[in-house]
Design a protein that fits this description.
The complex is a heterodimer of chains A (249) and B (75). Chain A is mainly alpha-helical. Helix content of chain A is 67%, strand content 5%. Chain A is built from 8 helices and 2 strands. The radius of gyration of chain A is 21 Å and the shape is globular. The chains are: A mainly alpha (249), B mainly alpha (75). Chain A binds chain B through residues 2-4, 7, 187, 190-191, 193-195, 197-198, 201, 231-232, 235, 238, and chain B through 51-52, 55-56, 58-59, 62-63, 65-66, 69, 72-73.
């Protein structure tokens, strides 16, 4: 049953630094794992690059050209300085959202339930869950994207040009344009967080459900863990690139 | 007096937001279907833009879902 546990983060251990105790939750550990996976994959896939692509290099080129194409279609001719950032965010989000597919290892709780070994009762409860179901990570990603809007506006249009963008399409819209910066953070955060959390809660309910709902699990998993996860990462990148394109065009 | 049952009723009512999202999804996919029927060559482009706008209209249901989860976890 749903008990609100899905909303809470699970503190695994804490680090003593600067005279303070910094709790490390499973969201942060999952983020570290995803960062390690992405760094290792990017090093492996970009080694020994040749002029004529073979094997893994052609896969890399398809991915990079796909991301470049999306950014080019939304941002126009300034795409080159933004494509690396949005590509990184997209790859991070797609691995993060799909990470519940890789939840192959039983958690310590399950092991204790099966074996009855007391060692498992007291060790850290860690299982691979999508880190984006924590609202803090979604909020952090949204804030990065929103902070990029004034920075890129000032860089490509100058301070005056960016301030003038508040008066578009007419001066009457000034309060709404200021409000936009707040509501965009809210909608980017809640869209990502809510979709992933909804998929996670529904999948948990199905896993614990009665026997006759078990055949539904593969279908629901394909929808929530593959389709919805990919779509949400695409939407996040698409919307934040559209917000920036609005300012610099 | 124990009022925690009202949280549950509120959580259920918050999911009324799914009504609007359903109507929005219906309108968006209906428009996409009409576009494909009139111009079958553009089906790929219509598919991607249709998905984007379907997700945009879905966000109202997500807001309701987040609020209902906040209420449920208070019980």
């Amino acid at each position: 049953m749903f008990s609100g546990d899905e909303l809470k983060t699970n503190n695994l251990f804490s680090i003593h630094a600067f005279g303070q105790e910094i709790p490390i939750s499973d969201t942060i550990v999952m983020t570290w794992i995803i960062m390690a996976v992405l760094i290792i994959l990017s090093v492996v896939f970009t080694r020994n690059m040749k002029k004529i692509p073979v094997g893994k290099q052609s896969v890399t080129e398809i991915v990079v050209e796909g991301i470049n194409g999306v950014i080019k279609s939304t941002m126009g001719h300034h795409w080159k300085s933004f494509a690396p950032y949005f590509g990184t965010v997209f790859l991070f989000l797609i691995v993060a959202n799909m990470s519940s597919l890789f939840n192959l290892f039983p958690s310590a709780e399950t092991l204790y339930f099966i074996t009855g070994n007391e060692y498992f009762e007291n060790c850290a409860q860690f299982s691979i869950v999508p880190p984006t179901k924590d609202i803090n990570l979604a909020l952090a990603l949204a804030i990065i994207s929103i902070v990029l809007i004034p920075i890129s506006g000032i860089r490509y249009k100058g301070l005056g040009g960016w301030l003038k963008s508040f008066l578009k399409p007419m001066p009457m819209m000034l309060p709404f344009n200021i409000l936009d910066y707040g509501t965009r953070i809210l909608s980017l955060t809640l869209r990502l967080f809510g979709n992933i959390l909804a998929g996670f809660v529904i999948m948990e309910l199905l896993y614990q459900g009665a026997l006759f709902v078990k055949p539904l699990i593969p279908i629901a998993s394909a929808f929530f863990d593959l389709f919805d996860a990919g779509l949400q990462s695409y939407i996040f990148v698409f919307l934040s690139s559209m917000y920036i394109a609005e300012v610099i065009e | 007096m124990d009022l925690s049952g009202l949280y549950a009723i509120g959580a259920g009512l918050a999911m009324m937001a799914a009504l609007g999202a359903g109507i929005g999804l219906g309108v968006a996919s209906g428009g996409a279907m009409q576009g494909v029927a009139r111009n079958p060559e553009a089906s790929g482009k219509i598919m991607t833009t249709g998905l984007i706008f379907a997700t945009l209209s879905e966000v109202t249901a997500i807001f309701g879902f987040v609020i209902s989860i906040m209420l449920i976890s208070k019980i």
